[in-house]
Design brief:
The chain has helices at about 15-25, 50-60, 65-75, 95-105; strands at about 5-10, 30, 35-40, 45-50, 85-90, 115, 120-125, 135-140. It is an alpha/beta fold. Strand 3 and strand 4 form a beta hairpin. The radius of gyration is 18 Å and the shape is elongated.
């Protein structure tokens, strides 16, 4: 078995896609317009628009989903919140990337943090519009 992709379920599809386009500096591969996109960024990072399926399910001419999917889709769910995983990205020049992302003004960005357990490790964090935590680490960090 192998990991196919990691995906973010969102009701803020365009906002989340725009956020990742800016962070990753690439356009996604669109598989289904307004429903699903994938970014090739070392591994696949995908974004799934839950509202797309909701609109299709609620349409009078629904032929896209079976009963099991609809039942699962409509079950009462607590709001999913990411508090277990962190999307970790690497860059060759952490100082440059920190400045670039800070200048984008797309979310609250942490200070650059430092950990040294076995090797020096510098990183900063930012949350996407759904609250998922991104940790951006890398080399060539110059202390200010």
């Amino acid at each position: 078995m192998e990991l196919c992709c990691t995906y973010i379920e969102t009701n803020k599809f365009n906002e989340v896609v725009s956020f990742y386009e800016k962070i990753l500096q690439i356009k996604p591969n669109i598989y289904t317009k307004d429903r699903w996109v994938e970014f090739e960024c070392g591994n696949k990072l995908s974004i799934y628009n839950r509202k797309f399926d909701e609109e299709k399910i609620n349409s009078k001419n629904n032929v896209n989903y079976n009963d099991a999917y609809i039942k699962d889709f409509n079950k009462e769910q607590e709001r999913k919140v990411n508090n277990i995983i962190t999307l970790n990205f690497y860059t060759d020049n952490l100082s440059t990337e920190y400045s670039r992302i800070k200048d984008l003004n797309i979310g609250k960005i942490s200070e650059i943090m430092y950990v040294n357990i076995t090797d020096p490790y510098y990183y900063f964090t930012i949350k996407d519009p759904e609250g998922n935590l991104l940790e951006i680490c890398g080399d060539n960090y110059t202390k200010e």
